[in-house]
Design goal:
- By secondary structure, the protein is α+β, with helices and mostly antiparallel strands.
- It has three helices and eight strands.
- The radius of gyration is 16 Å and the shape is globular.
- A hairpin with a 6-residue loop joins strand 2 and strand 3.
- It starts with a strand and ends with a helix.
């Protein structure tokens, strides 16, 4: 079994312009960071032409498939039976994308097969992380 989950998804960038546009995105889950999910967007999806990556709680993504959730920079909510909205807040503004809920469920199922909910703490290397911090100090 793979120790990292990467899954390409098609996101629909919700814009204030008349038409939304499709952009590729990459979901990532790593057991070494068991509480987090990563979503990366290519330069075409950003205002400044740079790659964009957001990291937020796996639980936020899971709960957002059922009901509005999130706080701070990331909010997630269901948008009808087939899509989920991810809203990202940054200094530059707010970006919203829609992703097929079935794709997000598949990604989460794969992540839970790798690290079941509630067992995340057992995948943390607290001693190793502390040792690395002390070496850097």
């Amino acid at each position: 079994m793979s120790t990292v989950i990467d899954q390409a998804v098609q996101a629909r960038l919700i814009a204030s312009a008349p038409e939304d546009r499709a952009v590729p995105a990459q979901l990532r889950y790593e057991p070494s960071d068991p509480f987090a999910v990563h979503i990366a967007f290519p330069p075409v999806a950003s205002l400044d032409g740079a790659d964009v990556e957001w990291v937020f709680a796996r639980e936020t993504l899971a709960c957002g498939l059922i009901a509005p959730t999130g706080g701070g920079d990331v909010h997630v909510w269901p948008c009808g039976p087939d899509r989920t909205v991810l809203e990202f807040h940054a200094v530059e503004g707010v970006a919203m994308v829609q992703i097929e809920t079935s794709e997000l469920r598949r990604f989460l199922a794969r992540s839970y097969a790798l690290v079941p909910a509630g067992s995340e703490g057992g995948h943390l290397d607290v001693d190793g992380d502390l040792a690395a911090l002390l070496r850097e100090a």
